[in-house]
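pinned: reference chain
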Amino acid sequence: MTDQVETLLAEAARLPYGEARTVLAERALREAEALREPEPAIAARLALTQAYQYGGEPAKSFATFSRTVAAYDAEPGRFTEWQARRVLWQFKWIMSDMRRFPEIPLRRALDALDDMERRYREAGTPQAVYAQRCRVALHLGDEPAVEEWLHRWETAPRDDLSDCRACDLGGRAYVLASLGRYEEAVAVAGPVVAGQFSCGVQPQSILCTLLTPYLKTGHLDEAAEGHRRAYRIVQGQIGYLDDIGDHLEFCALTGNETRGLEILERELPLLERPPSPAQAGSFMTGAALVLRRLMETGHDELTVRRAGRDVPVPELHAELAAGAREIAARFDVRNGDDVHTRRVAATLAAEPLVAHLPLLSPARRGEPAGRIDPADTDSLTGVRETRARTLFELGEHEAGLAALREAGDPAAAMEVAKELADVDLDVEAAQAYAAAADLYRDAGELLAAGCAMRLRAKCVYFAGDDLAEISEAYAQARAVLTAASDMGQPDVGEPGTGQPDAGQRREAAWELAGLGYDEAVALERAKCYEAAAERCQEALDAYLALDDQIAAVRARELLEGLREETEQED
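pinned: its structure tokens
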């Protein structure tokens, strides 16, 4: 591989998924193709397929993946062992995408699944194929086939091409929930919810899956906590557009239409560039249900800000409901049935499962709230967040932080910090994350405080070039996360109560792995390659121990680049 292509790919791997990373990977592929040598192009296409997948542009990955497979079939000897396994791993992404685009003929999708199975069986690893066949059967509404493939999926031995344990359990919980086997779904998901297994997309995805099962089985506090915990992670992220739709549906089913409207107005711009029709349809279905409930509860005079104008609720409801039905109809035409039309119709007509489910944590529902009823959590949360957000928009950052501290709501502080970071106000974002960490510590939630401190450290890194300050920020975050993972109580802030369980220690380990990776990137920028490699090795070891293969790949790529830099220095 030429130095230019290798440099571009290494630079891309250090960026978060999104437009900037994708542009660099695309440039690397253009450079590689100009060389007319197979090896650089292989590496670039694998990296670009991954960038498209995690950057919200899965449709573009069909072309890069197809060319990779064609190149492998023509000259398999050109691929390293790792690259050959990576081709098989990416097959899973493509199969999932084929279900999300009704433009792709069903026969083509089924043929691709047969091709995947042939390749996986040659590699001696069929478990992931059973999972894909189960999901296809669910997509088609073939319940007997779903049951058959689910059984094979559950009983087949795992291997290195299986999804990580967290996602594997998440997929099985989703199937069980879709079949109405809610108690089983909750049980299967238990280890992930408890933190025994986690990865880059878990537990937020599995908590979204459990929203309805929790309600159906009477686990109301768990449902509220699942919504709060998962939505904080996925908000504003286009790759979770379908999950956001599920959170909207949850709000409509629990008498939290006001909260649903707030989420809808915040996330509606994502609908302008959906990753896939399936994800757009899920979002529109949940949104239309929220809007219908608003009309039914006497709020049809409200408007929603969209594309520079205030759209009346009835008008937006009609538009989104029609859009959801249209996408469902396209899938039914593709599949030759009416499964998706019936599913969307049932959701659009759904009635609340709970008259009103308070979304504030149980321990704080009895707190006094002044001109507001403590049970009126929507108004309480709305006032707190509106006051702080208004102060931030006016540039009064210190006053905004003071308002967050006065409210005592760490979740609101985290949300404001994220919004500040999204618009590159890194100094202010670091302050907001620090405020959130203080509030979490005061509440005895040390792991959450550590997560906030990790994000603060990243903002400190983005905000300046003072290596001592950056290193101190990472050291502080590491101290809190390490304390959260210890069995004994830490001497950090106010002491908590009880002892962390195994799930908390595992989640802390995942956060520490991410912290190590982030610090390695910061140290690399400061040209401290040896120290960066040490941190990156720690992160890689942790990701492998946690069975997070995707994150491990990213850490391994960075580590290889750092070792090359170290060798060049020597």
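why pinned: The longest strand covers residues 303-306. The chain has a mean pLDDT of 87.
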